[in-house]
Amino acid sequence: MLVFAHSGYFHDLLDSFALGVVILNARGRVYAANTAAAALLGHSREELISDPAVAADVFRRTDDPKALRRYLREALRREHPGEARRLRYRTVDGKSLHLSLTISHLVENEKIFGVMLQITDVTEIIALHERERHIMDEKYRVERERVESLRALSSAVAHQLRNPAMSIGGLSGLLLKKCPPDDPARPFLQAILEESKRLETIVAAVGEATLPLSPRTSCFSLWNLAASRLAHVRALAAERGLSAVWNLAGQDGRLCLDGTLLGQALDEVLLNAAEASLDEGRVDVLLAPQPGAGGHAGSATITVRDRGPGIAADIAPYLFDPFFTTKSVGVGMGLCRAKRVMAALDGEIRVENHPEGGVVAILSVPGGPPSGEPPDLEHSRDTGS
């Protein structure tokens, strides 16, 4: 084999490879290399084969010589070669290269007598990835600064509008109390009072939207959370004259995240469903938890479906925009708030038309970290109300 390794035919074969190739015997000594490998490593083929000091110099020029030696030793001992390895290599003229190494076994009579080390220069690929990462980081930085600037502006505007709005509302309310019932100015004062209250609501919504969200993790029962939020929204809906018929179904599960924030997002979705439903319209709430592995809390999906008219195609792109609403009441921050909350929980929210009519909203949250004892959970449940 050594005679064959030093034959002209064998060298021509190795030189036909575009990537660098170095062959090591069972003792880890170099006994063949091609021109591409010599060019990458900065030593001639003859030096790599005949001079142990040169081979030692190659190891020293890597970013982790010990790890490279261990990688080669393990490859010679294993039945199957190890995974590809990436390293940095400093050439003789001072250039820094990123090299990718892969190993193939050389076997004769079912015995490993050496390995073929394939060396690929991935410096340009790494540099390209670094440039892309830098561009993305810069875009993220600019976007973050833009968002922070808008948040600061919104907060400042809300602060400047809050006091005048409260003054207008307070004074108009005072004048309305002193105004005789038959005074022709009374309807105008009433309109001023109502609009000032609406303005106060908008200012409060802007102020809330500019506050940072800081989720606090705790473990809780998904069913208990959904049932409590459903009871809360049912009471709100009744106050507004809405008469949806609610159905809560699915499975219970343990979640470990900020239940207060998840409850806020669920409130917005449930209230939207109640407002979209016709008289005595059915709203289905389906809980679908997924158990976690290795002691981790599970993920979950909450699906809310109403039987309303659905989403018109021309307004679908604006559902999550702040202050977008098709209703005569409200400020249009519900779904915007829900989306912001779900993002803070590393979850997501989707709202779309159901194939059989109405709208379906899907809240998805990921699994949580390992936690203590799970809460007491009942198993499958299905209730209607």
From TrEMBL:
Start and end residues of each Histidine kinase domain: 156-369
Pfam families associated with the record: HATPase_c (PF02518), HisKA (PF00512), PAS (PF00989)
UniProt entry keywords in alphabetical sequence: ATP-binding, Kinase, Nucleotide-binding, Phosphoprotein, Transferase, Two-component regulatory system
GO biological process: regulation of DNA-templated transcription
Bias-annotated ranges (Basic and acidic residues): 376-385
Spans annotated as Disordered: 365-385
Keyword set includes Electron transport: no
InterPro entries, sorted: HATPase_C_sf (IPR036890), HATPase_dom (IPR003594), His_kinase_dom (IPR005467), HisK_dim/P_dom (IPR003661), HisK_dim/P_sf (IPR036097), PAS (IPR000014), PAS-like_dom_sf (IPR035965), PAS_fold (IPR013767)
Listed SUPFAM superfamilies: ATPase domain of HSP90 chaperone/DNA topoisomerase II/histidine kinase, Homodimeric domain of signal transducing histidine kinase, PYP-like sensor domain (PAS domain)
Domain PAS: 6-79
Keyword field contains ATP-binding: yes
Family matches, as PROSITE patterns: HIS_KIN, PAS
MF GO annotations: ATP binding; phosphorelay sensor kinase activity
Record protein name field: Sensor histidine kinase
Organism listed in the record: hydrocarbon metagenome
